[in-house]
Amino acid sequence: MARGIKDKVAILGMGCSKFGERWDSGAEELMLEAYKECISDAGIDAKQLNAAWFSTAIDEVHVGKSGIPLSTTLRLPNIPVTHVENMCASGTEAFRGACYAVASGAADFALALGVEKLKDTGYGGLPGGRGGPLQALWSANGTAPGNFAQLATAYMAAHGVSGEDLKKAIGHVSWKSHQNGAKNPKAHLQKAVEMDTILNAPMIASPLGLFDCCGVSDGAAAAIVTTPEIAKSLGKHDIVSVKALQLSVSNGSESGHNSWDGSYFHTTRIASKKAYEEAGIKDPRSEVSMFEVHDCFSVTELVTMEDLHISETGKGWKDVLDGFYDADGKIPCQIDGGLKCFGHPIGASGLRMLYEMYLQLQGRAGKRQLKDPRIGMTHNLGGAPRENVSSVAIVGRFE
Amino acid sequence: MVGIVAYGAYVPRLRLSRQAVYDANKWFAGGLRGLAKGERSMANWDEDSITMAVEASRDCLTSHKAEDVRSLYFASTTHPFKDRQNAGVIGTALSIEQNLLASDVGGSQKAGTSALIAGLNASRNGGGPALVAAADKRMARVASSNELNYGDGAAALLCGTENVIAKLVGHHSVSMDFVDHFRGDEAEFDYGWEERWIRDEGYSKIVPPAIKAALEACKLKGGDVTHFIMPSLMPAVPKQMAKLCGIGEGAVRDLLGANLGDTGAAHALVMLVDALETAKAGDRIMVVAFGQGVDVLVFEVTAENAKLPKRKGLSGWMARRKEEKNYMKFLAFNEMLPIEKGMRAEFDKKTALSVLWRKRDMIYGLVGGKCKVCGTVQFPRSQVCVNPNCHAVDSQEPYAMAGLEASVMSFTADSLTYSPDPPAYYGMITFPEGGRFMADFTDSDKEQVKVGTKMRMTFRIRDNDTMRGGFKRYFWKAAPV
Predict the structure, then answer these.
(1) Which of A126, A137, A249, A253 is the best residue to mutate to test the B interface, defined by the most B CB atoms within 10 Å of its own CB?
(2) Residue A377: domain span
């Protein structure tokens, strides 16, 4: 294993727009909203930025290609801007680029900004019709909920979990996120919801109902990173540093080889293991203080907590029902409401997860503030269970 | 000796209740009451004459190798393409391209029999085995008698000279422009003349002389015919024709109207398959098809018929049945109802024809790969083996998967994606030999689809590119066995 970047990079500032159906804003306004907060939090001038990474996943429905939309919107000082796309994991990808630039010494100050403006398509759900001219000829005409619903059917079959138990467990996942989201003024959905409402909601893609699916939102989030030394020299206290950044990408074995049973994320198991190693974490269940994971669908979160090696394989649903991941549980998960309630503007989501970890570690999370968190972990997934990009970031107090 | 060496058929699973059609339309067309009984076959939204012909051909080739076929005739009056060989699509779906003469036959209700005569003659003249497929999916106006009388279906017959199950005794044709009905190239529906005129001036004056000429050529008498096959939308006509030619009333075959309907250009061959399924050695079968003339064929069943390996056949496909009482669904499937499809139906379906050509064995033949190094079967075939413990490069040989049974690993019923028949069922299917892919399901119900359900691959319409005049994208879907 490579040496890694543990404690080589510090988060100097972060910003996040209000997420939601932002009929008032285009991608440009959202970018600026996140950036203004971020640069003011960092306390530097735009002229000091050496490089930027810009993430959007479905750029064809809003900003278009390249790094130009970011550079133009922010009037950046003609620095390198790299447009990154790794599906729903794009936000973490932008962060990774910026961190690596700082860790390598190529940049002292690097910006990562992700945005997605989804609500200009005229219909609900994610825009469809991607994949290229060959895939269009053979792969099922599916949707995101349809792909992730299959995680539920395979999980039930693999572990002998009844439909009723699973529905209750994934219902609890969403119930908990709604409880948390209600305390977050930037969240898309800020309303607590009763379990009965969740369980009896209309079916989107069986067994996933309406409340098993996350919000389709507009929003942007940003981070400026530097080295811990520079951060200190700028007079920063409570420095949050990057402990690990890992990414694992499917190579077709899940979708094409019969060794995978459909009940777990092969990539997440690999990425999280590498991340714990990079961060020097031996027992994540006792060492990680909080999680923001990719709960695009309730069942994704449930299975992910197993693949992050927190819950035992096949037993995650019991931890969920025990309240292990609730705000007052052993390891709170989605304390900001998660994708479920904070919302899921694709290119921004990975950065939004880090934003919450950053606020929590600095004790700035308002009504949602957890008691003395030390290590926060984000998990940002792109694609479908059978073929995906799984990225994991661990951040913590720089000590 | 030339004749038929194998047969197959296909009937869509859905059977539309005629009572349901009548109930919806009786306010307007009360005169249809007499037809409001039984059911007609109804193609699923993803079926057309090509997909049905592929299924019938696969059924026919249960006992024979597709690669031995040297000519392929596809008869229909509803070929999905006016200019793009429809038979060629069937050939590619059956993975036969090389050494194949493919031809579309159409334009008349006797297209099926004309194609059969062509196939038999090709085979007799040293042309090798000839596959004759016929299918029709005709549209009819709302509240018309045709809407109730028509059915969707297909038949396929393999012509050859070895192990003949029904030898050709003789055939005779006459061709004349008697326009009982027509469908112009600007019309979706048939336009027909008065039935009494068709019966008295058409059938009665054109058919008996043709039958008599055929009998004479075969040195047979009417009484020698064991099975008399003659499709007609007028049920009394075949009996009248038989009587006029000295053919016993008991020989006149059922028109299959009660549960199937008239399958157009395919119907004479559908009825022939029906007869062959139970015919005994020595039985003589006369097939008559009427449409701007007459084709008459006479066969004699041989002892080989009893030895033909089992297949679904017409009876098997007829037994696979689901009643459909929702007439609105029938109209929507046939684009007869401007139903609100939502914006997700607007996604562009443009097909890159160059990609389709490069990958035609994969897309139309469902041909995957098998790694020569580790033996792993995979779909699609790729340059680097998918087995995580192998990853050999350029190691795969083509591996045909259309005939393999798969099972459901995971699935969903998706109400978000656009489907003409929501919710859309799809899921990961795995083949026990190896290989898997995310497949659309068809002919599926909630009760049938579970993890572990056995699935059969079936050739279907995947998308219809209506922006470009209706380019149908075909691919394989999984249907419960």
Answers:
(1) A137
(2) 144-211+243-397
